[in-house]
Amino acid sequence: MQQPYHLKAKHLVAIDDTVFGYENNELKLLLFKRNLEPAKGQWSLVGGWVDPDESCEDASCRVLTSITGLKNIFMEQVKVFSKPDRDPGGRVISVVFYALIDIQKHNHQLSDQFGAQWWPATKLPKLIFDHQEMVNCALNNLQIKASRDLVGRDLLPEEFTLTQLRQLYNSIFMKEFDPGNFRKKILSLNTLQRLDKKSKNGSKKGAYFYKFKDDKEELEFKERIVNI
Amino acid sequence: MQQPYHLKAKHLVAIDDTVFGYENNELKLLLFKRNLEPAKGQWSLVGGWVDPDESCEDASCRVLTSITGLKNIFMEQVKVFSKPDRDPGGRVISVVFYALIDIQKHNHQLSDQFGAQWWPATKLPKLIFDHQEMVNCALNNLQIKASRDLVGRDLLPEEFTLTQLRQLYNSIFMKEFDPGNFRKKILSLNTLQRLDKKSKNGSKKGAYFYKFKDDKEELEFKERIVNI
DNA sequence: TCAAAAGTGTTTTTTATACACCCATGC
DNA sequence: GCATGGGTGTATAAAAAACACTTTTGA
To answer: A5-146 falls under which CATH superfamily?
Structure first.
């Protein structure tokens, strides 16, 4: 079973990023018009090759930064897709990540230039190869993440209302959370700080803006936020 | 960003299996004495190379079968480990799986012959490279799995008592579950079938044997078994 | 004035936890 | 008879869900 390294087959290894953003009360996904064969012109996830001197995480960061202009993007591994025939263009092992970014902050010129486009997560075009399955897995991971950590930090603007946060959660879990119960749950976590400003966008009365407390990077003991 | 496939670097891709078993009320791990440099003679997970015509899952199955003699082993992906310097012997990207097997059923001659040995999960020797981190991730995945699915099917013998199942859960979660509450929870899932036999091993009174219902492969709507 | 979101409070239901207690039996 | 794990039931606590109600203000 164990043989010298140099005798073994080598593989092309790629990363594919499921990039989530949030805009107009909708969870969105950044998709690419593929510019090489096979399946040129069709929609796909953002991807790239893994270089000899970098980890898959490094490769994913590099690709994300090159497309959005952002650094320190939140990102987590999802799964490896490695069926020998998954890519008709050749045998490619792909490591999938999901990333969360603030649509407002990213460099639109840059992503436009790459032929990238934001799509509502619920209304995606047909994707190449196994990319739809990748998206499904990524969304699943995002839900697991959001069930234990408040994910708004990466998707919402600095300052946001609890209604905005709830609508984000609605779109991640594709269900309606009770406004009163959601509010109580979130505030009990003690990770948000209320500001002395009010948003007049959502209602006539106006809703307080909140922001994430700087210190509270991680909850010491992860309480469940939503049940899945 | 996107270039023809043939211009890109290729990588050695391996799989490493965290093989869990259960024996004498202990969760155990199958470890290998490594028989090639570097780190020859040290303990490691069971591993193997990914061949050109197989998926990582295929490679993992192949390796597991070659060592245990068993087929259709339960197995799930854990994570990819890909730091460029993680293996001093060369740049190897490793896809980690965890597997659950019935220690009684596997072929001992075969695993002995490979230099494999079962270790209590709580008392592992020092492992090579990043294998301890792999084990930690795998155990974490096993806990997540066991919190939603009854995992005894793969780790326990066909027929087992509820006390055995509880002790398995105790060792997976490294805590003591209340006997009465655990029993009620498990029976409420309706996935076990009581047999008309009693085990006299654990107690004087004797405890009913149970087995997994054949039909209930999957619960339609996954209820939580334990909270994590 | 009234519709609509913001925000607070209460009730009900469900689930988890703690633990009391009887049972059967080998010693 | 008594210690021991098996098995059942009950009381309590905590969490989730449902929903009533008050506030504010632009249209």
So the answer is: Nucleoside Triphosphate Pyrophosphohydrolase (3.90.79.10)
